[in-house]
Structures are given as C-alpha cells and as structure tokens.
Amino acid sequence: MNISKVYIASDHAGYEAKMQTKNILENMGLSVVDLGTNSASISVDYPDFATLVASSIKSSDEFGVLICGSGIGISIAANRFSHIRCALSHNATVARLSREHNDANVLCFGARVVGSDVIKDMVEVFFATEFIGGRHQRRVEKLGACQCF
Description:
- By secondary structure, the protein is of the alpha/beta class.
- It has helices at residues 15-27, 46-56, 72-78, 92-100, 116-126, 135-145, and strands at 5-10, 32-34, 62-68, 86-88, 106-110.
- It has a 5-stranded parallel β-sheet with strand order 2-1-3-5-4, sandwiched between helices.
C-alpha cells in the first residue's frame, strides 16, 4: 500500500493509546504527523482533533488515525467531511474489512474500549490492507456523494 503520511490525533482520553499507536506506525516505517493532543491531563474536545486530521488529508496516499474514549464521537466528527471514510474499529477483522470493502482512509478506535494488543493488531492490519475495489467501488463512490438533509 502506498502511504505518504499518516496524521494522528486524539482527545485527552485517547492520549496514551495515541502515543502507542504512533510508535507502532513509526516502527512500520510510516511517516507520522502528530496533531495532538499533547496531554491526558487537560480536557479537550474531540471534534477539534477530528477536524485537524480530516483537514490535513489532501490526497489518496494520506491516511489518519483518530482516538477518543469510545471512538464514537471522534468518528462522527471526522465522517462529516466528504473525502473521509473513518472506520470505527474494535478488532483487526473490522479494521481489515474497512480497508478491503470501504476504502477507509482513517482508522478510529476507543481507548477505553480496546486494549494494547488489539490496538497493535488493528493498526498493523489496517495499514497493510489494500482496497479490493470491484463491486465495492461503486458503493464507496456513493459515500462521497451523500448529501446531508
């Protein structure tokens, strides 16, 4: 998979998991840009960090990782951007399928929901899996065309 850059961010609840994830990505040889937060001790708002990552991704070879307590809020915020396909994952199977079937460009998870081993498995499989296209391509095209009502 051709990856030029991975943008990563979290709120305060996801800070420790973000640091673990950043280390995993760097050990995989990926270029990582940490957009914050920089502490677990100061409460911050997850939509701000979802916006930072979503706004930074400008090409098909740029990806993101977002983390909050549950993963729910930050994934909702990221998916408001038409070019983002943020996949809230709880295990490696979901992470793999989000790439294969949905061409997800942002991996998301909840730091209070998954443990260290699961984080490692999800990150490794997400960034090693290609989109398979085929019948899934037309569905992914419809995702970017969705209009809010």
